[in-house]
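Changelog-adjacent note: as of this version, every example in the card shows the full chain rather than a window. The one below runs 408 residues end to end.
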Amino acid sequence: RATGLKVAGRAMAINVSAWSIRNPIPSVLLFVMLTLFGIAGFHAMKIQQFPDIDLPTVTVTASLPGAAPAQMETEVARKLENSIATLQGIKHIYTKVQDGTATITVEFRLEKPTQEALDDVRDAVARIRSDLPGDLRDPAISKVNLAGAPILTYTVASTRMDDEALSWFVDNTVTKSMLSVRGVGAVARVGGVDREIRVELDPARLLALNATAADISRQLRQIQQEASGGRADIGGIEQSVRTIATVQSAAELAALDIALADGRVIRLDQVARVSDTVAEQRSAALLNGKPVVGFEITRSRGAGEVDVADGVRAQLARLKAEHPDIQITEAFNFVDPVQENFDGSMWLLIEGALLAVLVVWLFLRDWRATLVSAAALPLSILPTFGLMYLMGFTLNVVTLLSLSLVVG
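Full-length structure tokens:
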């Protein structure tokens, strides 16, 4: 029995450190592999300002054009609030009522899964949909995305384009080009104008013809429609049939025949003035006090600000080469502060490691112990980046500051 206990005690005394000292080659190879793994993970990680946080917060937006705020509150907002308030796990409910719009923000507790919160709110709204006004548009229900803030804003100028042409250039050419960049989630135009076909009715002529604006509007509503008409057999070959009711220009719309209630047919331009113009401007973008047409770049969730900015700038360089008469100027940049914070956090991490080595030498006054700590710090930190990459972390203020704090 004594011999057995003695052997067991010796076996328990063997640890990883002692085995590594006696067998240095496997240990060295292991740390070389971990270091290479950490370096690869460091280069593959995204650089962000803050980590992407999935908060269980849902917004409900209901629109009723023309309704006053008091009507929106009594007929829409309160009914939605009463139905949503019965859900489990709600922390706060915020409501904002404006002309024709009510926005309800529902904040759940952190332990509530976001998808479950979204489904619960959608069910609560569906339960009372029949109690809401009939002409209310279907409420838009979406979860709050913290990555939805613009990171880059550019202005567009040209000597041969007016605001209408520049707005179309941004909506068509620039938007398609930017959305092809990896990591770009949305491109939104700022300022500019929207095209509008305006039909201005003449009340005197309508009265003389015993017609009303509702008659004209009802027939115009049937224009600009393309629908499937089914299938047809032509010569033994099956072909699809489409119903096309579109006009290509304002002149074609003005020449449209309008049937009156008494059976007479008139042209639209006999009772109205049709013009191809721009819509009334309800917002404007100013840079240094001057109106401009610009666009904002928003990154998608999971993408890094620095990578998105590099891709956008490379795509803009190609776009400028294709359109040399277009001047694209950077107005706002929220990516450079992210890069500066990243560089500062990396220097803080290096300074923390150097100070830790210095403290070891000051207290122990042993070059061997100092050399061991100086080699152990990078061999401990670098594999951490590899594990962070596998766990889906990014290089942001939180993760780098945490490493800087624990490096000592």
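Structural remarks: The first strand starts at residue 57 and ends at 63.
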